Amino acid sequence: MGVRKSIIKFSFNKQSKIFRNIISILIPLFILGYIIYMNWLPCGYAKTFMLDVGSEEDILTGNFMYLDNKGFTPRQSYGVDTWRSPLFEKPVKIFFKPPILLDKDVNLSLSIDMTNNDTVYIKVFNPSINKTEWIPYYPAINDYVKLKEFNDSTVFVKREWLEFKCHRLNMKEDCSNIENYYKEFFSDEEYLKLWIEKNIPPFNSLGFFARIINKSKYINKDVGFKEKIITDINVSLRGTHKFYVYLKDKLYLSLTKEDLNSYYGEDSVSIELRDLQGKLVYSSIFKDDGIIDDSRMKKPQTEIFETAGLKEGTYVLSINFIRGGNDGEDFIIRNIKINTNKIMTIDRVLNTESLSLYTESLMPEQVSFYYWHKGKEQNITVSGEQNLTIQLTQEDISRQIHCNLGGKNHLYLPKGYVEIKSNLNWAFNEENYFYPYSYKLNQKVPSFAVAYKSLFISGDEITRDQEYNPYFEIKSNPSLEIHKLWLTLET
């Protein structure tokens, strides 16, 4: 019996050793295979994670998704429903720990169960311009009428646009029925872009909510550009200005810069040319005139800026004050000469002398006039589809005066030194005006809005902290109540 017992024991130990050897080999292979699979994902990956906001676990860092507790109110509940709200209208963070590598081939969609009538903004990194930008999650839907619903998005039109069109068309029908009139006009198409191009009149303002816009899809290529033309613009622009310019092959730009020398320090200026995706294609420095005291002596300088090899299209030309040189934007740009017949300022104009401007808008846009220089009382006139006079008196100094402009209009300032701000673009004559895009891509209060039901982005568009932890950063009014979050990862 003893020998038999010994044999049985030996046989068992041998099998155990073989089993342990097999396990010791399989476990590392399994771990290695898992790592390779999760990075390569030959069969793809798709999973949705949910965070119950207001639960006791929503701030635990061990979860796949968790909240930054510092930015939210304490958990709140009513019955079985729980939620939290942002504090102090400041951005708040939602962290997550992805089980897969986040690269450009990974698609993410974030859905929010919330209670709020206002737009929620989500910060997203845009690799094409190497900057982060705030993407609206939803527009103020109460001000919009639903036109068309797709699987992942809905197209809306602003009620104000419908009412404006009703009166512009002098329709005999009661304007209360205008919604049904335009719903019948809009037809059904399979793809969103084709549907937009067919159904939304060009050059209207169009906003995309919960998605980074690929603006190149909506670039206007028919702007009336003329080659071998030098446009001479007699202006006197104070400080930083930006322009849309249409160029082909090259840039030729001649400027005169006059430093006012009202402050100590340099008045150097950067000249930048970027494409519509924000990529820098040319830059140079227009240096100070050498007078760095506050003597108010003037020594105008004229320089030429040139670059070749440009693709035909619209660019953003910026004349930027280089901060740190002195206390103010203490220079004037005069005598602009450029090799295009299509040039206009973006959003803002500040001229020191009399000035004529031209603008267009399919919908009324608010324009503000800031009167900040004494002795410049004047009557600003608007002529065209609207005819009005804006009177600036001594009582208007340091005040913003507002009016709404719609249609095609000319603006005349007899004295200058009034800062004009608006979403409109301004040309120095009608020939210079053009539409950079087939639609005015405006995410604030567009006439037409495409609201996606989730935030759709790719892995390389995720924002990360200094430790490279990925997160979503959102902001809204404190009235926002976040109840649940869903995050879907797909490859």
How big is the Rg?
A: 30 Å
In helices, the fraction of residues equals 10-25%
Number of separate helices: 4
Largest sheet: 12 strands, antiparallel
Low-confidence stretches: 1-14
Amino- and carboxy-terminal Cα gap: 64 Å
Task: Please state the overall shape, judged from the principal axes of the Cα atoms.
Answer: globular
Please report the total strand number as a whole number.
28
Strand content: over 45%
Label the structural class. Answer: mainly beta
Average pLDDT figure: 82
Care to give the gist of this entry?
By secondary structure, this protein is mainly β. Helix content is 13%, strand content 46%.
Description:
This protein is mainly beta. It has a domain at 1-40. The chain is built from 4 helices and 28 strands. Strands 12, 13, 14, 15, 16, 17, 18, 19, 20, 21, 22 and 23 form a 12-stranded antiparallel beta sheet that branches. Strand 26 and strand 27 (470-475) form a beta hairpin.
